[in-house]
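Lecture 7 notes: from sequence to structure.
We start with the chain below.
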Amino acid sequence: MREITLQEHQRSDPFALSVAERDVLRRTASVAIEPAEREDSAYVLTPGSTIGAVEIGGLLVLIEPKIGIPQVLSLACYAIGKVKFQREDFDFRAEDALPDALALALTLQARRAFAHGLLHGYRTEEDALYTARGRIRFDHQLRRRFDVPLPVEVRYDEFTADILANRLVKAAAYRLGRMRLRSPKARRNLGWLESMLEDVSLVEFQSTCVPAVRFDRLNEHYRRVVELARLILRHGAFEAGRGAVRASGFLMDMNVVFQEFATQALRQELDLSERVFRSDSDSGVGNMALDEAGRVKLKPDLTWWEGHSCVFVGDAKYKNITGDRIPNADLYQMLAYATALDLPGGLLIYAEGEADVATYRVLHAGKRLEVAALDLAGRLDDVLVRVEQLAKQIVVLRDEARFGAFALVGEKGAASVGH
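Predicted structure tokens for the same chain:
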């Protein structure tokens, strides 16, 4: 199999591609493709913010993240389940591709979770049986089998390993196992995991509606493996085919990972609920508009609400910036948010290295647009310390929206986090 390794946001050397390979790669992985100069059927590839692996027939394309796969998984798992993974919690090598790394990480956490056996729980079943069990469903019995004594419509609780937590892990293992993993260890470990979950139902979860598991003292030891499984199921494993060309792969959009991490980490630091500190996917956010008629819809990434009033607006941007200037479009967008929500300003949060800290005061509008950079390097705990500084900046903006720029009490650094 031919193999191409690319780096996120970096132009590649020329590679030979067939027309079908070129078209599938552009469509599935959002790779910018341009013909190479003075070469036939060769192309220069520039990935965007999508990382992972794509198989196109006999071609494997790997797109590596700038910050390293362990750091990506740490941020992504914290974003969806508030799980704190550190680098030492992952059992893979730096050179392993994302699908292999995920398979090794999933099976390592599964071994730890299954150390004392599979988790069992009660699941409510409804069935027609020839012996009474649990509670008889008299209404269904009369409607379906009037004057027929057997079978009996019953509802009962069954103590089983076929529960949501195990189904999520099995579905994630199955999805990774359908890929062509390069690591023999990853393939062996997935085989072990599938055998452990042999009696668990295989359920196909849609990436847009992967259910969450409620944890307590009885199943807390399952949290890490379940959240890794949910991460795998929520991101882009896919299969596609047109004619003789088939493609499959696993892709993660770093824009989504960064926004979800920033939202979750700030909620935790500010000690606010999803109802108060909202993301663009939360209900109610899509009802905002720029114009009075409500035709121009607005969906900021981050908003802080007190009752029906918005007291802070912000956007989290992972985009690659060429040069040292913030894109005008980002500033225009933030100005629109601040204007429509009647706020004194807003905050643009970029990943470190993509933008420098700056403040823009808008002529004749009285708005202040602030730019902050969040460094994603180092241990997760180090990144969360930097989030704490962002939270303080947000509280100052919230207080200005509440009381006005001249009504703040104390210095800027003395603003309190929380309500």
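Points to note: The chain has ten helices and 17 strands. The two ends are 57 Å apart (CA to CA).
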